[in-house]
Design goal:
single chain; alpha+beta; 16 helices
C-alpha cells in the first residue's frame, strides 16, 4: 500500500509511466529452451562517477545503483513497494517512529543482509568524515543535524538494530516524504565487511563492491566507457528479474548513438540535437518527459557581482528558452518557468500542478526580454560598482553541452553590454568535481526528482545545503523551507502554501536560473522489450521487464 502525505503524486507527473511497455505485448522468460541469455543494450551520456552509495550524486551512477543495489523500498513505476523491507510500514509515535522488518536476503557474496547493514550504512553516510553530499537528506532523523554539524557522533543517529531482522528509525519530527526518500542510494544498506576490506577503493571499481540488488556490476574499472550488469542470483526477488544481462555504453556524441542504434548495436539510444530532431519521424521514437530541471548556477562567492539580484535577473531574461530548445536541444524538452518541474506534485486541495501554480508569480524573470535584461544589467553593474564583467562558463565535453555553451555565450555577450564569457569544456566527471569544489564562475547543472515532492528541488538552495554551489542565500527562503519540514509537516495545505511561497521567492530572486525541463528523445528497438517502467526520478526499473531473444 502506498501512502501520500500532504502533496500527492500526479500520475502524469512522476514520469512513472510504463516506458516501452507498448513495444511488445509478449512476455518471455529470461532463458528459453536453448538456455541462451537475454540481453538489453542501452547507453548513458557519460561514465559512472562512483558506486559508493554514500557518495553517488549523479543520475548515471544512480541508475547503476538502482540496477545493482537494494534499499528498504523500491519504486514499481509510481508505486512504492517493499524491497529489502517486508512491507511498506505505517509510522507510529505521531509519525516519528518507523519499524522495518528485513526480509531473508543476501549480498552477492552470500553474506546475509541484516539490520546492522542499514545502521552501518546510514551512520557512514551522515558522518561528516564521509563527505556525502546527500547527508542533508537525513535532516529530521534524530541527532542527524547535530552529527552533520560535528556536535555529536554518528553512533547517536536515530537508527538501531533491534535484532538481526528489525530496524527502528526515530525522527525528531514527522517528515511527510520520509518513506519516499528511502529509495535513494544514500539510505541503502552497506556491508561493513566490504567497506573495511576495500577501504578507500570501496565503490571505485566493480571488484571493490558487493551487491544487494537485481544485478551485479561487471567489468567496470572506474574509468571505462562500457560495463555490464548481470543477473544477481543472490537477490531475494530474482524470480522477477527476467533480463539476464544489461550492456551499457557511455556515448557522448548523439550521431554515434544514432548510428549504433541503426546498426543494431543499441536497443535504446537517447539523442539530442540534430539526431533528436531527425528521430521524431522514426517509428522507434519515444519522447519521455522527466522530472528533471536544468539550470544555471552563479558562484556568488567567486564572482561577487552575482550577489546583485538585477544582474541575476538580467542573465535569466536574456535567454530565449524556446529558441534554445528548438535550435540546440531539439528533443522536445519544455521551458522551465521555475525550478520545480511540471507534473511532479499536485495541490492537496485543488489538485492543481505545483509548477503551474508557482509560475503565476515571478515568471516574468524567466521570459525572454532582452530590452529589460539590458536595463537591469546596466543598473546592476552600476550598483555593484562595475563597468564590465568577465566570467567563465563551465560545461561538459559532450556535443550537446558544447553547443549549449556556445549558445549562452552568444546571447549573453549580445544582450549584456560589458559582459565577456569564456567557455571551459571538461569531462562530465571533472565538471561534477569542480562544481562540488566551487571551482566555477557559472555552470549548467541539473536535478532529477529523488521523490515526488517539491522539497526535493527547493531544499537544494537553502543557505547551507551542499548542493547550493552558487552560495545564493536568503533568510526568508530558509525560514519557509524549514517551516515546511517542521511547523507545517502535518498540515498538507499550509505546507503546500509555504512551499509555493519559497518557489516564488527563488524565482523572483533568480537564486538559480531555470532553463528547461527535459523531455528525453529515445529510439527504442520495436517489439523487443515489455514491462520496463521508470521511477519518479526517471530511472529505469528493470525488475519485471522482459525481452525477446
Amino acid at each position: 500500500m502506498k501512502k501520500t502525505y500532504g502533496v500527492k503524486i500526479a500520475a502524469a507527473a512522476t514520469v512513472a509511466v510504463a516506458l516501452l511497455s507498448a513495444c511488445s505485448g509478449n512476455k518471455s522468460s529470461s532463458t528459453g529452451s536453448t538456455g541462451a541469455k537475454t540481453t538489453w543494450s542501452r547507453m548513458e551520456g557519460d561514465i559512472i562517477s562512483t558506486m559508493d552509495p554514500s557518495l553517488i550524486t549523479d543520475a548515471i551512477s544512480g541508475q547503476a545503483a538502482t540496477d545493482t543495489m537494494a534499499g528498504l523500498y523500491r519504486y514499481d513505476g509510481s508505486d512504492l513497494q517493499p524491497d529489502l523491507a517486508t512491507a511498506v510500514v505505517k509510522p507510529t509515535n505521531s509519525g516519528k517512529t518507523y519499524t522495518f522488518k528485513i526480509r531473508n536476503a543476501k549480498w552477492s557474496n552470500g553474506d546475509a543482509i541484516t539490520a546492522n547493514d542499514f545502521v552501518f550504512g546510514w551512520r557512514r553516510t551522515v558522518d561528516p568524515a564521509t563527505k556525502s553530499q546527500y547527508a542533508y537528506l537525513y535532516s529530521g532523523i534524530e541527532n542527524a543535524d547535530a552529527i552533520m554539524a560535528g556536535k555529536k557522533k554518528a553512533s547517536t543517529l536515530g537508527i538501531k538494530a533491534v535484532n538481526k531482522s528489525t530496524v527502528e528509525v526515530t525522527l525528531e519530527h514527522a517528515i511527510p516524504y520520509f518513506e519516499t526518500m528511502l529509495v535513494n542510494p544514500a539510505f541503502f544498506p552497506q556491508s561493513e565487511k566490504a567497506v573495511d576490506q576495500y577501504g578507500s577503493k570501496y565503490g571505485t571499481q566493480s571488484k571493490y563492491l558487493v551487491f544487494s540488488g537485481p544485478y551485479k556490476l561487471v567489468g567496470w574499472n572506474g574509468t571505462n566507457n562500457s560495463w555490464k550488469e548481470t543477473k544477481n542470483n543472490s537477490y531475494w526477488d530474482k524470480k522477477n528479474v527476467h533480463i539476464d544481462q544489461i550492456n551499457v555504453t557511455a556515448i557522448k556524441d548523439p550521431s554515434t548513438a544514432y548510428n549504433l542504434f541503426k546498426s543494431g548495436k543499441l536497443d535504446d539510444a537517447s539523442l539530442t540535437g540534430d539526431q533528436a530532431a531527425q528521430a521524431k519521424s522514426d517509428p522507434s521514437y519515444q519522447g519521455v518527459k522527466q522530472a528533471s530541471t536544468f539550470y544555471l548556477e552563479m558562484n556568488e562567492k567567486k564572482i561577487p557581482a552575482f550577489k546583485n539580484t538585477k544582474i541575476r535577473q538580467a542573465i535569466s531574461m536574456t535567454i530565449n528558452r524556446e529558441e534554445y530548445i528548438k535550435k540546440v536541444l531539439q528533443d522536445g524538452s519544455i521551458v522551465a518557468p521555475n525550478l520545480t518541474p511540471s507534473g511532479l506534485a499536485t495541490d492537496p486541495a485543488t489538485k492543481k500542478d505545483f509548477s503551474a501554480e508557482a509560475a503565476k508569480t515571478g515568471s516574468q524573470y524567466t521570459k525572454y526580454n532582452p530590452k529589460e535584461a539590458t536595463k537591469l544589467w546596466t543598473e546592476g553593474l552600476k550598483e555593484a560598482g562595475l563597468k564590465d564583467l568577465n566570467i567563465e562558463l563551465l560545461t561538459d565535453d559532450g556535443e550537446n553541452s558544447k553547443k549549449t555553451g556556445e549558445y549562452l555565450q552568444n546571447t549573453f555577450e549580445k544582450n549584456l553590454p560589458g559582459l565577456k564569457v569564456s567557455i571551459s569544456t571538461v569531462p562530465f566527471k571533472t565538471r561534477l568535481a569542480r562544481s562540488t569544489a566551487g571551482q566555477f564562475d557559472m555552470v549548467m547543472g541539473g536535478w532529477s526528482a529523488d521523490f515526488p515532492d517539491p522539497i526535493t528541488f527547493l531544499d537544494l538552495f537553502t543557505s547551507n545545503n551542499s548542493y547550493n554551489r552558487g552560495k545564493w542565500s536568503n533568510a526568508e527562503y530558509d525560514k519557509l523551507i524549514d517551516e515546511s519540514k517542521t511547523t507545517y509537516a502535518n498540515n498538507a495545505e499550509k505546507r503546500w502554501d509555504v512551499l509555493l511561497q519559497a518557489q516564488e521567492l527563488l524565482t523572483k530572486e533568480q537564486g538559480v536560473i531555470p532553463i528547461y525541463q527535459r523531455v528525453q528523445a529515445h529510439l527504442v528497438k520495436q517489439g523487443k522489450i515489455s514491462g520496463l517502467k521508470t521511477t519518479p526520478g526517471g530511472a529505469y526499473d528493470f525488475v519485471g521487464a522482459t525481452v525477446k531473444k
